[in-house]
Design a protein that fits this description.
Elements lengths: L1 E3 L5 E3 L2 E5 L6 H12 L2 E4 H15 L2 H6 L4 H6 L3 E4 L2 E4 L2 E2 L7 H11 L2 H15 L4 E5 L2 H5 L5 E6 L2 H15 L9 H17 L12 E4 L5 H18 L2
Parallel strand pairs: 3-8, 3-9, 4-8, 9-10
Antiparallel strand pairs: 1-2, 5-6, 6-7
Bound molecules: 2'-deoxycytidine-5'-monophosphate.
The site of 2'-deoxycytidine-5'-monophosphate (DC) has 13 residues, from α2, α5 and α9.
Length: about 240
Protein backbone atom coordinates (compact mmCIF):
# COMPACT_ATOMS: atom_id res chain seq x y z
CA UNK A 1 0.00 0.00 0.00
CA UNK A 2 1.28 3.51 -0.79
CA UNK A 3 0.30 6.91 0.61
CA UNK A 4 0.87 10.28 -0.97
CA UNK A 5 2.95 12.11 1.64
CA UNK A 6 2.55 15.90 2.00
CA UNK A 7 5.98 16.29 0.38
CA UNK A 8 4.45 14.73 -2.74
CA UNK A 9 6.56 11.58 -2.28
CA UNK A 10 4.74 8.27 -2.26
CA UNK A 11 5.44 6.58 1.07
CA UNK A 12 5.23 2.84 1.30
CA UNK A 13 3.80 1.06 4.35
CA UNK A 14 6.86 -1.05 4.99
CA UNK A 15 7.61 -3.90 7.38
CA UNK A 16 10.65 -3.50 9.61
CA UNK A 17 12.03 -6.76 11.03
CA UNK A 18 14.39 -6.45 14.00
CA UNK A 19 16.13 -9.59 15.22
CA UNK A 20 18.95 -10.27 17.62
CA UNK A 21 19.88 -12.01 20.86
CA UNK A 22 18.45 -11.27 24.32
CA UNK A 23 19.12 -7.75 25.68
CA UNK A 24 20.65 -6.50 22.43
CA UNK A 25 18.30 -3.48 22.52
CA UNK A 26 15.63 -4.82 20.16
CA UNK A 27 12.47 -3.88 22.02
CA UNK A 28 13.55 -0.37 23.04
CA UNK A 29 14.76 0.38 19.51
CA UNK A 30 11.70 -1.18 17.86
CA UNK A 31 9.25 0.67 20.13
CA UNK A 32 10.90 4.06 19.55
CA UNK A 33 11.27 3.61 15.80
CA UNK A 34 7.58 2.64 15.61
CA UNK A 35 6.62 5.76 17.58
CA UNK A 36 8.63 8.03 15.28
CA UNK A 37 7.15 6.49 12.14
CA UNK A 38 3.60 6.24 13.52
CA UNK A 39 3.84 2.45 13.03
CA UNK A 40 2.59 -0.42 15.22
CA UNK A 41 5.16 -2.19 17.37
CA UNK A 42 4.78 -5.96 17.76
CA UNK A 43 6.84 -7.73 20.42
CA UNK A 44 6.89 -11.38 19.31
CA UNK A 45 8.90 -12.42 22.40
CA UNK A 46 5.80 -11.41 24.42
CA UNK A 47 3.78 -13.92 22.36
CA UNK A 48 6.18 -16.82 23.16
CA UNK A 49 6.15 -15.68 26.79
CA UNK A 50 2.32 -15.72 26.79
CA UNK A 51 2.18 -19.33 25.57
CA UNK A 52 4.73 -20.23 28.28
CA UNK A 53 2.65 -18.49 30.97
CA UNK A 54 -0.45 -20.36 29.85
CA UNK A 55 1.43 -23.70 30.01
CA UNK A 56 2.65 -22.86 33.53
CA UNK A 57 -0.82 -21.83 34.69
CA UNK A 58 -2.36 -25.01 33.31
CA UNK A 59 0.40 -27.07 34.96
CA UNK A 60 1.16 -28.94 31.73
CA UNK A 61 4.92 -28.29 31.40
CA UNK A 62 6.09 -31.67 32.70
CA UNK A 63 3.60 -33.46 30.47
CA UNK A 64 4.72 -31.42 27.43
CA UNK A 65 8.36 -32.17 28.19
CA UNK A 66 7.52 -35.88 27.96
CA UNK A 67 5.04 -35.59 25.08
CA UNK A 68 5.85 -32.36 23.17
CA UNK A 69 2.98 -32.91 20.70
CA UNK A 70 0.50 -32.40 23.58
CA UNK A 71 1.15 -28.65 23.40
CA UNK A 72 -1.36 -28.68 20.52
CA UNK A 73 -4.30 -28.83 23.01
CA UNK A 74 -3.23 -25.61 24.65
CA UNK A 75 -2.73 -23.88 21.29
CA UNK A 76 -6.22 -24.71 20.12
CA UNK A 77 -7.97 -22.18 22.32
CA UNK A 78 -5.46 -19.40 22.83
CA UNK A 79 -5.82 -15.73 21.95
CA UNK A 80 -3.03 -13.16 22.19
CA UNK A 81 -3.74 -9.49 21.53
CA UNK A 82 -1.83 -6.23 21.87
CA UNK A 83 -3.49 -3.05 23.07
CA UNK A 84 -0.65 -0.52 22.82
CA UNK A 85 1.96 -1.87 25.27
CA UNK A 86 -0.58 -4.10 27.04
CA UNK A 87 -0.48 -7.82 26.26
CA UNK A 88 -3.78 -9.70 26.55
CA UNK A 89 -3.73 -13.48 26.90
CA UNK A 90 -7.21 -14.97 26.48
CA UNK A 91 -8.61 -11.50 27.13
CA UNK A 92 -6.66 -10.87 30.39
CA UNK A 93 -3.82 -8.41 30.93
CA UNK A 94 -0.57 -10.41 31.39
CA UNK A 95 1.89 -7.59 30.60
CA UNK A 96 3.84 -7.95 33.85
CA UNK A 97 3.22 -11.67 34.51
CA UNK A 98 4.99 -12.68 31.28
CA UNK A 99 8.20 -11.02 32.61
CA UNK A 100 8.21 -13.31 35.64
CA UNK A 101 11.41 -15.34 36.24
CA UNK A 102 9.60 -18.66 35.91
CA UNK A 103 8.43 -17.63 32.44
CA UNK A 104 11.94 -16.45 31.45
CA UNK A 105 13.37 -19.81 32.52
CA UNK A 106 10.90 -21.91 30.52
CA UNK A 107 10.34 -19.78 27.42
CA UNK A 108 13.34 -21.20 25.51
CA UNK A 109 11.86 -24.69 25.81
CA UNK A 110 8.35 -23.63 24.76
CA UNK A 111 9.66 -21.57 21.83
CA UNK A 112 11.65 -24.57 20.54
CA UNK A 113 8.42 -26.54 19.85
CA UNK A 114 7.36 -26.64 16.22
CA UNK A 115 3.57 -26.44 16.80
CA UNK A 116 4.13 -23.30 18.91
CA UNK A 117 6.28 -21.69 16.22
CA UNK A 118 3.83 -22.57 13.44
CA UNK A 119 0.90 -21.09 15.34
CA UNK A 120 2.67 -17.88 16.39
CA UNK A 121 4.27 -17.29 12.97
CA UNK A 122 0.80 -17.48 11.43
CA UNK A 123 -0.56 -14.96 13.98
CA UNK A 124 2.44 -12.65 13.37
CA UNK A 125 2.01 -12.76 9.60
CA UNK A 126 -1.63 -11.80 10.05
CA UNK A 127 -0.70 -8.93 12.40
CA UNK A 128 1.83 -7.56 9.90
CA UNK A 129 -0.17 -8.15 6.72
CA UNK A 130 -1.09 -4.49 6.22
CA UNK A 131 2.46 -3.21 6.71
CA UNK A 132 3.39 -0.18 8.84
CA UNK A 133 4.75 -2.46 11.55
CA UNK A 134 7.98 -2.84 13.43
CA UNK A 135 8.26 -6.43 14.64
CA UNK A 136 11.07 -7.71 16.84
CA UNK A 137 12.12 -11.26 17.69
CA UNK A 138 14.58 -13.95 16.63
CA UNK A 139 13.22 -15.11 13.26
CA UNK A 140 11.30 -12.15 11.86
CA UNK A 141 13.67 -11.44 8.96
CA UNK A 142 14.40 -15.12 8.28
CA UNK A 143 11.00 -16.82 8.69
CA UNK A 144 8.07 -14.53 9.50
CA UNK A 145 8.72 -11.78 6.95
CA UNK A 146 11.69 -12.77 4.75
CA UNK A 147 10.48 -10.11 2.29
CA UNK A 148 10.42 -7.32 4.89
CA UNK A 149 11.69 -4.15 3.19
CA UNK A 150 14.03 -3.44 6.10
CA UNK A 151 15.77 -6.13 8.12
CA UNK A 152 17.95 -5.29 11.10
CA UNK A 153 20.12 -7.61 13.18
CA UNK A 154 21.20 -6.10 16.50
CA UNK A 155 24.16 -7.51 18.41
CA UNK A 156 26.05 -6.51 21.56
CA UNK A 157 28.68 -8.27 23.66
CA UNK A 158 27.41 -10.50 26.45
CA UNK A 159 28.95 -8.45 29.29
CA UNK A 160 27.30 -5.26 28.07
CA UNK A 161 23.97 -7.06 27.74
CA UNK A 162 24.33 -8.38 31.32
CA UNK A 163 25.00 -4.79 32.50
CA UNK A 164 21.79 -3.62 30.81
CA UNK A 165 19.74 -6.42 32.40
CA UNK A 166 21.34 -5.61 35.77
CA UNK A 167 20.42 -1.92 35.51
CA UNK A 168 16.86 -2.84 34.47
CA UNK A 169 16.40 -5.24 37.40
CA UNK A 170 17.88 -2.81 39.93
CA UNK A 171 15.60 -0.03 38.69
CA UNK A 172 12.57 -2.31 39.08
CA UNK A 173 13.42 -3.90 42.48
CA UNK A 174 11.82 -2.51 45.61
CA UNK A 175 14.18 -0.63 47.96
CA UNK A 176 16.25 -2.88 50.26
CA UNK A 177 15.94 -5.98 48.06
CA UNK A 178 19.01 -8.01 47.12
CA UNK A 179 20.90 -6.98 43.99
CA UNK A 180 21.20 -9.55 41.20
CA UNK A 181 24.61 -11.06 40.46
CA UNK A 182 26.01 -9.67 37.19
CA UNK A 183 28.17 -12.77 36.44
CA UNK A 184 25.12 -14.97 36.83
CA UNK A 185 23.11 -12.69 34.53
CA UNK A 186 25.88 -12.95 31.90
CA UNK A 187 25.82 -16.75 32.17
CA UNK A 188 22.01 -16.78 31.74
CA UNK A 189 22.27 -14.55 28.68
CA UNK A 190 24.91 -16.84 27.12
CA UNK A 191 22.80 -19.90 27.85
CA UNK A 192 19.78 -18.29 26.16
CA UNK A 193 21.94 -17.33 23.14
CA UNK A 194 23.01 -20.96 22.83
CA UNK A 195 19.43 -22.24 23.16
CA UNK A 196 18.13 -19.76 20.57
CA UNK A 197 21.00 -20.33 18.10
CA UNK A 198 21.17 -24.11 18.33
CA UNK A 199 17.49 -25.04 18.27
CA UNK A 200 16.23 -27.08 15.35
CA UNK A 201 13.30 -24.87 14.28
CA UNK A 202 13.90 -21.24 13.25
CA UNK A 203 17.19 -20.73 15.10
CA UNK A 204 18.40 -17.20 15.71
CA UNK A 205 20.46 -16.14 12.71
CA UNK A 206 21.10 -13.09 10.60
CA UNK A 207 19.37 -12.88 7.22
CA UNK A 208 22.04 -12.22 4.53
CA UNK A 209 20.30 -8.93 3.62
CA UNK A 210 19.95 -7.70 7.20
CA UNK A 211 21.90 -4.65 8.38
CA UNK A 212 23.94 -5.67 11.41
CA UNK A 213 24.23 -3.00 14.10
CA UNK A 214 26.51 -3.54 17.10
CA UNK A 215 24.88 -1.67 19.99
CA UNK A 216 27.63 -2.39 22.59
CA UNK A 217 28.77 1.21 22.67
CA UNK A 218 25.81 2.98 21.06
CA UNK A 219 23.26 5.09 22.90
CA UNK A 220 19.58 4.27 22.40
CA UNK A 221 19.21 7.53 20.46
CA UNK A 222 21.96 6.50 18.00
CA UNK A 223 20.39 3.05 17.50
CA UNK A 224 16.99 4.57 16.88
CA UNK A 225 18.39 7.21 14.52
CA UNK A 226 20.20 4.58 12.41
CA UNK A 227 17.14 2.36 11.99
CA UNK A 228 14.82 5.33 11.46
CA UNK A 229 17.03 6.80 8.70
CA UNK A 230 17.21 3.47 6.88
CA UNK A 231 13.41 3.18 7.09
CA UNK A 232 12.78 6.70 5.79
CA UNK A 233 15.16 6.09 2.85
CA UNK A 234 13.28 2.94 1.89
CA UNK A 235 9.88 4.66 2.30
CA UNK A 236 11.03 7.49 0.01
CA UNK A 237 12.34 5.11 -2.60
CA UNK A 238 8.84 3.55 -2.49
CA UNK A 239 10.58 0.22 -2.95
O1 LIG B 1 12.67 -11.22 23.36
P1 LIG B 1 12.32 -12.03 24.62
O2 LIG B 1 13.49 -12.23 25.55
O3 LIG B 1 11.11 -11.52 25.34
O4 LIG B 1 11.94 -13.47 24.03
C1 LIG B 1 11.60 -14.53 24.87
C2 LIG B 1 11.99 -15.86 24.23
O5 LIG B 1 11.16 -16.13 23.13
C3 LIG B 1 13.43 -15.97 23.75
O6 LIG B 1 14.19 -16.80 24.61
C4 LIG B 1 13.36 -16.60 22.40
C5 LIG B 1 11.90 -16.70 22.07
N1 LIG B 1 11.55 -16.02 20.83
C6 LIG B 1 11.60 -16.75 19.67
O7 LIG B 1 11.99 -17.92 19.71
N2 LIG B 1 11.23 -16.19 18.50
C7 LIG B 1 10.81 -14.91 18.44
N3 LIG B 1 10.42 -14.40 17.28
C8 LIG B 1 10.76 -14.13 19.62
C9 LIG B 1 11.16 -14.72 20.81
Amino acid sequence: MKLLHKSGIRKKHIIIAIDGPAASGKSTTARKVAQRLGYTYIDTGAMYRSVTLKALRQGVLDEVRRFPENIADLLQEITIHFDGDTVLLDGRDVTSDIRDNRVSREVSFISSLKPVRDKLVEMQQELGRQGSVVMDGRDIGTVVFPDAELKIFLVADARERARRRYAELVAKSPEGSEYPDIDQLEEEIKRRDRDDEEREHAPLKKHPEAYEIDTSSLTIERQVDSVYSLAVDIQKRGR
